[in-house]
Amino acid sequence: MASEAQLGLYVARSSQLHNLNPLTKLVLAGCIIVLDFVFPNYWMSTILAVGVLLPLCLWGKIGGPVMRVMLQVILPLAAFLFIIQGLFYPEGKTILWQLGFLSVKKEGIEFAYLTSARLVTMVGAMLLVLCTTHPSTLMADLSRRKVSPTLTYIVISTLQLIPQTQAKARTIIDAQRARGLATEGGFYSRIKALLPLIIPLILGSLQETEERAIALEARAFKARRPKTSLVIVPDSLLQQRVRIGLMVITVLLLIGAYIWR
Fold first, then answer.
1. In sequence order, what are the beta bridge partners of 126?
2. Which of 20, 44, 64, 131 lies 20 to 30 angstroms, CA to CA, from 97?
3. How confident is the model at residue 6 (pLDDT cuts 50, 70, 90)?
């Protein structure tokens, strides 16, 4: 369980996507997200999700984990968007279905689809990086590129925050159940059990933060001298050219989108 918390969303697979330099995957995800939100029409988000992200997930052998996250996070939100926007979209005039005072409008469905497609593309691009990049690899590559140690630590700790909190919460729940605490049942029972679960979680997180700060200082975290790393992250000339090409293509598409408007 601790190892899962340390690795965050990383999925160990043997694929060429995993072997790419972290900066290459970050540039790719950044370009996808920029194009996703700049183009006003839904077709760009659909092309990016189906034509780019889906093949990359299959190439990296992470289709299953990414799909599970999408179903757990995006599907409920998308269903909520379709219901609310379809029924109550303020600028909707074309009625597709009506029952009494409730009416589903075409404009609301289109807006809900656009928003959902953008969310799928954005979350998919971030998952593409997180599921194929080990935190230590990302940290080593950022440090090698002279990125501020403080910024590097913030990025890595943020990626690991949710998995670590989930693992700690599961441990606390199991421990409290072993002591006889009723964590299941009706609404009142769950509210009653909430305080004994939250207090150890908060205190444990604060203690872990202090221990981590002491460990970082012991390892000369703020030292300005050059540091060595046991993790060697390869970066080929081809990948450098690919990153430049991705940024050039993104800029050209943005210029084209601005002209076509």
1. none
2. 44
3. very low
